[in-house]
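Support request, please re-run this one:
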Amino acid sequence: MKKVKVNKQTALRDFLSEHLNISKKKAKQLIDTKLILVNNKRVWIASHMLREGDVVEIPTLENNIQWEIKNNILYEDEYIIALNKPPFMESEGGKNSLEDKLKGFKKSRKIQAIHRLDRDTSGVILFAKNRAVFEKFKQLWQEKKVKKEYLAISHGEAVFRKKVVNIPVDKKYAKSIIQTLKTGSGFSLFKIEIPTGRKHQIRIHLSKIRHPIVGDKTYGLKNITDPLLKNVKRQMLHSYRISFFHPYLKKKITITGKPLSDFENFGKIIRLL
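Re-run finished. Output below.
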């Protein structure tokens, strides 16, 4: 993180544009990452007015994660393919999404994401090789016949071994089964199973029980003073394992994805991995 002291009142977007010698559009894109700190607090409003004496911290945005599709295929058969998704990439829906890249890699426009992970969440994600397979597997999700397990590194040392959280998300029933794997250095490593799959469910539930995920820009800590935390560029949440009964092969399939290097490195620094 680079610290810069403000010497005159100005909008955050204009300040970054001038200081970094970039367009206001690019400055706005940088602000949208929610990684800009003003006086140790995240700010993601481009028009936020800076005052003389404010300290703006600007992240270095290089992504040091080395990732290629061919090295991150976790499972493949004639119906589906599973990847270990990197952070900072959309699951589906447009150019440069993981779905789009996989279509190019496999030279097939029929490939379709069966489910999705948040942009900054890493881990196991499944793709169907054609529309019929997509519909068949989508049914498994709708019938809640897929076991989904995540790893998360959160703030605070949990005092429970296992906790079931039933807190509605967007007024819909949501259930998370949280198991504490390890604690220390003011953090906890959790394994979370989600029988339901509401948007941001794990992030919301962990925040509600006072263990927000490290690096979560929406539901996490607002005031960040620790230099170690300032260098965390995304939420420490990883889709670790998916299990299901394969509707075509007629057998149980379990797919596990190792945490990506940024998750692993942070976990090692705080001695939870």
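The chain has two domains: 2-58, 69-269. The domain at 2-58 is CATH 3.10.290.10 (Structural Genomics Hypothetical 15.5 Kd Protein In mrcA-pckA Intergenic Region; Chain A).
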